[in-house]
Amino acid sequence: MSPQPTPPRAEGDPAIRPRHPSDPPQTPPEKAGEPLLRIRGLGVQFGGFHALTDVDFDAREGEVHFLIGPNGAGKTTLVDIITGLTKPTTGSVSFDGQQLVGHKEHRIVHFGVGRTFQAATVFEALTVGENLDLAASYRLGLRRLLRQPRGHADAVVEALEVTGLADEVDKSAGALAHGQKQWLEIGMLLAQGPRLLLLDEPVAGMSPDERTRTGELIRYLARGRTVLVVEHDMDFMRRFADRVTVLHEGRILRADATVAEVQADPTVQEVYIGRARDDRNSAGRSGAAAAGAPAASDDEEAA
Ligand SMILES: Nc1ncnc2c1ncn2[C@@H]1O[C@H](COP(=O)(O)OP(=O)(O)OP(=O)(O)O)[C@@H](O)[C@H]1O
């Protein structure tokens, strides 16, 4: 029997509970001022193929910013550039005034930028606590880690609490349920003390209940930080996004909008619905599932 996920500890905390219809609009507090992440004129080519062209993008402290777009739009490539995995052909990426382009991945982590991948990358043979200790040590450095008093660093204790994994601290990560592994990976990010968290499809493969808990966790993470979420799940976006940017074929289709603005945008609707139509047609022809349109029906309903 697969283990039952424990809910995040701070469930009663109004900052992380799901949005209620009577709640005030989720406009992030800071619209003015310099964004924490500022991307200008970004472009990248693979061979002759333009994966990203002239991308401008801003994200501010305290906001949950969703990056959406059909398959192949360039979302992961954008995250890869921010984190130093891919070098852009043109443009700049400024994080808290620091230019990131040209720095190696580990330097960018030290600047305060962390990411998760589509598949959780935890050390399955280690316990939950050991995974978190290891993640915390990456930022602290070995010398400071050895000088730590016995027990876990504060950042690890916080990560255990907010991911709801405190009761699983001595369990091996390989024995966790799918959702719990994703939460552990997010907890490992948190233990590194980032100011910008990039989450690539954090709810893929999760149950509805796990999605809700992940959304609550993301809202918690955004307190005093910035969270950029790459996601296909439109319902999840509607519930938990502050701002939304839409990419299409490597270009910005709609920048820094509210959920309502994105839903009302006919160009965005056309991209998603057109894509869904194409996928359905090709699925009909080939008999294969329309893998590229996980949220399409959602959007048709929204349209
Ligand atoms: N290293 C690479 N070499 C060649 N082409 C690449 C490389 N990385 C990405 N691409 C191409 O760039 C385009 C954008 O890919 P990317 O993975 O960023 O899209 P995405 O929006 O994240 O898609 P998905 O939602 O399917 O993950 C795709 O056409 C992809 O094939």
From TrEMBL:
Domain ABC transporter: 37-274
Keyword Transcription: no
Top-level taxonomic group: Bacteria
UniProt region (Disordered), positions on chain: 1-33, 275-303
GO molecular function: ATP binding; ATP hydrolysis activity
Low complexity biased stretches: 283-296
Gene3D superfamilies reported in the protein's UniProt record: P-loop containing nucleotide triphosphate hydrolases
GO cellular component term, pick one: plasma membrane
Record's keyword terms, sorted: ATP-binding, Nucleotide-binding, Transport
Compositional bias segments (type: Basic and acidic residues): 10-22
InterPro entries: AAA+_ATPase (IPR003593), ABC_AA/LPS_Transport (IPR051120), ABC_transporter-like_ATP-bd (IPR003439), ABC_transptr_urea_ATP-bd_UrtD (IPR017781), P-loop_NTPase (IPR027417)
NCBIfam families: urea_trans_UrtD
Stated name of the protein: Urea ABC transporter ATPase protein UrtD
